[in-house]
Protein 1
Amino acid sequence: MTPQLTEEIPEWKREEIEEFEDLIGEHKAVGIVNVEGIASKQFQQIRRNLHGAAKVRVGRNTLMRRALESQGLENLVEYVEGQTGLLLTDDNPFALYQKIEEGKSSAPISAGQEATSEVVVPEGDTGFDPGPMVGDLQQAGISARIEEGSIKVVEDSVVLEPGEEATPEIEEALSKLDIEPLEVGLDLRALVEKAEGTVLEPDTLDIDVDDYRADLESAAAGAFNLGVNAGVVNDSTRDTLVSKAYTDALAVGIEAGVYEPEVLDNLLAEADADVRALAAGLDDDALPEELQGVEAPAEPEPEPEADDEAEEDEQDGQEAEEDAEDDEQDEEDVSEGMGNLF
């Protein structure tokens, strides 16, 4: 609702307040952006880049504050200062912030403008031939001299600190070196999702979306594993827990020899494997027709042993011969038993 205004307030101001109010009411989130230093042409390009994602409206700060207060967004009023714009969106605030940052571009600095960050001229060859330019660079505070027929910056040179104004000498030197230290674009000061009411500032919105998604996926997987291991039944773990319980119950049934329909196939398969393994070691004459010709499983190749173990090998060989004789006797006994069985 529009706050009560006196009769002295011009109609155009009333209309601007109402326009702000309508825009705020039509969108899920409202933000305050700094538009200082953005030329008209660049501002139009920014609007085109944000088309479909957000709208930006500028106007008088006093009227913008009135509209925010009337819409219950008093917590954004303190951010309305200087050259300000109103940002309106239905998009995810974090994704929108990334879009705003990606839309920024570099720009040269002019004399009298303040640096937004430290400006450093890196060490290296400038590519310029010896001449008066070396003096121009030195006057701008750049460590430059002539070496090997070229003007070189002999060490990284800080020419501006954050908030420091550029001099004409610095402007000219940076321009000749093609260094554009300013970043042009919208600076989001704060944003509020109306449904939540929490003020989100850049340090909260500035996240790596891919890393954040990976962290969430990892946390979800960890929670799922914990839930399954702890036996917590919910929509996510139910199917896995039922499958695990079935597998565990089947294993118990097989081990205990429980004659249930779902266990019998496994019991029969296990018994069949045992019979075939036993039959493979017997003569076909001692076996029924269906078990004749069963091949014994291939034995693993023995690993070569060291020379210093030759004596142990010989002793093992003697023991093996004795075991073989015992095995032959066992086979005869088993054959006789199998014959009686079948």
Note: The chain has three domains: 11-104+185-207, 119-181, 261-342.
Protein 2
Amino acid sequence: MSEMVVQPDFTVVIPCYNSASTIAEVISRVTEFFDAAGHPFEIVCVDDASPDDVADVILKIRERDKRVCLIRHHRNYGQHRSVLTGMRYVRGKFAVTMDDDLQNPPEEIQKLIDGIGDADVAIGMPENKQHASYRNLGSNLVNGIVKLAFKPPPGYGASSFRLIRRTVVDQMANMRTVYPHLGSIILSVTRRIVQVDVRHEPRRVGRSNYNVRKLISLAGNLLINYTKLPMRVMTLTGLATAFLALAFSVYIIVLKVVEQQHYDAGWPSVIVAIAFFGGLNLVSLSVIGEYIIRLLSETSGASQVVLRAEHFGDDSEDPHGAS
């Protein structure tokens, strides 16, 4: 137990949703690990408007140990925004991000600490993933989009179990996109990333909060917010359509002049005009879309989340220092 809050070396950020049955053990094992290792630490739990009583469980633990902090969202925002919320409260030299389901044993944090070296981020890659097949398929799709958008270092893989230096954490916490994806944000900040093999255990209780619909939604947000692929496809489609329209017009002229073929008056020219200008419209829309994307990138300042409560320090201090 801890009666006072000291400056931590490590801040563990845990997004919480439907985890009332596991969060106490997660916190207990994280605490045991860092106490045994002799590292000052704190745990920042983010209650993502969970329908169970996970917040009550965390607050009871907090009564005994003020190193355990709680942030509560007004509504459910998802895992990625929950982790970013927690990162804005990181005080340690390093941040550890991990899930609340014990599939990544807290004791494996030591492997991340040993493996980070001079890198900015150490990602714990499961030696043998214990997810459902649809979850693995969705993860592979998302990772493919990330690789397409960011051209990450060879061998890059994504995982929610990470050790991140404070300098990178601060940059990530300043990101204001309404549709954050942590892997993409990390790659936009640094390429000094190492992979560390870690143990991955089967889920003990319940099932993953990610379903097929959420995975498809995540992949769609990635495509639209972090890549220009849809815009590029529109551009290429428009150029190809305009080119084929011109080629078709040449073909019609050749048939009419050389082979003396006759068509209904106006039919070829109407088809060519529709196809040609339709293609130009696609190209024009793509160019406009490029400008809109850049404007949004420059001006986006929408709030990612709305907080319901914060429990830090002795519960009377404002972690942001507001008066």
Note: The longest helix spans residues 267-299.
